[in-house]
Write a structure and sequence with these properties.
- This protein is of the alpha/beta class.
- The chain has 3 domains: 39 residues; 206 residues, 3-Layer(aba) Sandwich (Rossmann fold); 176 residues, Ribosomal Protein S5, domain 2, CATH 3.30.230.
- 27% of the residues lie in helices and 27% in strands.
- It is globular.
- It binds thymidine-5'-diphosphate (TYD) and magnesium ion.
- The site of magnesium ion (MG) has 4 residues, from helix 3.
């Protein structure tokens, strides 16, 4: 292709903002040092955005109430945890972005999806721009045998990929990773904003036009967002993040955007020698290895999508050797913990200002739900008193600035989950008491105790 006049454009690598000159801070997303120079062909600029416009005939509007939904429009992957996160299977013609740190298991998960779907009689094309056929085969051998419906292509050129997809007509396509793909029509390097955007647009058109379900793998930046522009997240139907501690064996698949189901649904997996296994009872899994009778350890229940999940919160409070005490949190909001400590100090007279404090959600899970406030407060106080709370106790509730314990949603479900795992005492907001009486009083073994202030909870735990 004859190149026209080349121009430099600066793109923000995090939100895709374009500018003619370099800037230290992106005016779009206010991030620093994200503007990167890319050379673009002027003639391309005129066409940019034109990808979606190509080959379009005027289409007829239809009556909404007459559109029928057929169950076969969704393909079940057979991996229950994934199907739930996706909202009940893979929707035909949908585009799903799977993001996550390197080595977390994105390729493994997608290969397993391919295997399950191919076994169900669907034609699958796995396109890798990162690994060779032999490397993929070695990984695939660990996962099990693959049938004739599973096709493999090692390619990075989008034009070649488009050709192949049109020829092979698969039902499901996996692109491992979008950052390695390049379109010849764009002169910027693979992985740059313009390339990633173009590649996604081309694939999107293929997906919608040929009704192919496309999964794309996206790398994640240090800050934890998908590398490349934010626009990528707007273009696709579903965004899944694969997270978890690389050193621990379990992984969490979280839906952050889903046009076909609820978001914030999570799937829990464990990485084994032969691939990812579903974890059937995540609460039990999260609590395994919990110390017996240790001070500073409190169990709480957080709602992850539609599912209650029991988690352990650990607090450690000790005297500070420095003028400014050290505060650190893992897995929860730092500012929230500081606020809760201020509430404790002011409303319950617990002198924490001279203490270092560490709060940790075990298992590498990130929980931002305010319903875990009460458990954080109890974990801190338990460590401060150096006294273990009853090991069969669970607590949840949002804590307000005047030390009041406020209502949380789905209290009944949380209590049920705790009961199922053998907990005996549950401290919860008093206002929630009415939601969680078991149908037959006296049948449930768990004792629910309504708490209206933080002080109430502390009094209960002291006795
Ligand atoms: P991978 O899927 O390559 O990660 P990503 O595509 O997200 O970069 O995952 C690789 C990691 O998973 C690697 O550290 C090895 C581990 N693994 C297992 O523990 N068991 C297995 O069966 C497989 C295939 C990988
Ligand atoms: Mg990979």
């Amino acid at each position: 292709m004859a190149k026209g006049k080349m121009t430099s454009i600066f793109f923000c690598q995090s939100c895709g903002y374009e500018s003619a000159k370099w800037m230290g801070q992106c005016p779009g997303c206010k991030a620093w040092n994200t503007m990167v120079e890319e050379t673009v062909d002027r003639s391309e600029l005129k066409n940019s955005g034109g990808i979606m416009r190509r080959q379009r005939e005027a289409s007829e509007p239809c009556v909404l109430s007459e559109v029928t939904i057929r169950e076969q429009d969704k393909v079940l992957t057979g991996i229950g945890e994934l199907d739930r996160v996706l909202g009940g299977g893979i929707v035909q013609g949908s585009m799903t972005l799977v993001g996550g740190d390197p080595g977390i298991g994105k390729s493994t998960l997608l290969l397993q999806v391919c295997r399950a779907v191919a076994e169900g009689g669907h034609k699958v094309l796995y396109i890798s721009g990162e690994e060779s056929q032999v490397q993929i085969k070695m990984r695939a051998d660990r996962l099990g045998s693959f049938g004739p419906n599973m096709l493999l292509l090692c390619e990075t050129s989008l034009d070649a990929i488009t050709e192949t997809i049109k020829k092979v007509k698969p039902e499901i396509v996996v692109i491992d990773s979008i950052q390695t793909m390049y379109a010849e029509s764009v002169s910027a390097a693979p992985g740059s904003v313009s390339q990633v955007r173009e590649a996604t647009a081309v694939l999107l058109q293929l997906a919608k036009g040929l009704l192919i379900s496309v999964f794309i793998v996206g790398h994640v930046t240090k800050e934890g967002t998908v590398a490349g522009p934010r626009v990528l997240e707007h273009m696709v139907d579903t965004v899944l993040y694969f997270e978890g501690d690389r050193h621990a064996s379990y992984r969490i698949l979280r839906g952050v955007k889903n046009r076909f189901g609820s978001t914030n649904e999570i799937g829990v997996f464990e990485m084994r020698e032969n691939g990812l296994m579903e974890v059937q009872n995540p609460s039990e899994y999260m609590l395994s290895g919990r110390p017996e009778n240790a001070s500073g350890s409190v169990v709480t229940c957080s709602m992850e999508g539609t599912r209650p999940l029991l988690i352990e919160i650990q607090g450690l409070v000790c005297h500070s050797n420095f003028g400014i005490p050290r505060r650190q949190t893992t897995g929860t909001d730092f500012n929230r913990v500081n606020l809760l400590m201020a509430v404790l100090e002011k409303r319950s007279g617990i002198q924490l200002s001279g203490c270092d404090a560490y709060v940790n959600i075990t298992g590498g899970l990130k929980v931002m739900e305010p319903a875990i406030d009460l458990a954080i407060v109890l974990a801190i106080v338990s460590s401060f008193w150096n006294r273990a709370l009853p090991s069969k106790l669970i607590a949840f509730g949002e804590v307000g600035l005047s030390g009041e314990v406020r209502a949380v949603s789905q209290a009944g479900q949380r209590v049920q989950e705790a009961e199922k795992l053998g907990f005996e005492i549950c401290l919860l907001p008093k206002v929630n008491l009415s939601d969680c009486r078991p149908e037959q009083p006296g049948k449930g073994k768990i004792k629910v105790i309504g708490i209206s202030t933080v002080q109430d909870a502390l009094d209960y735990c002291r006795d």
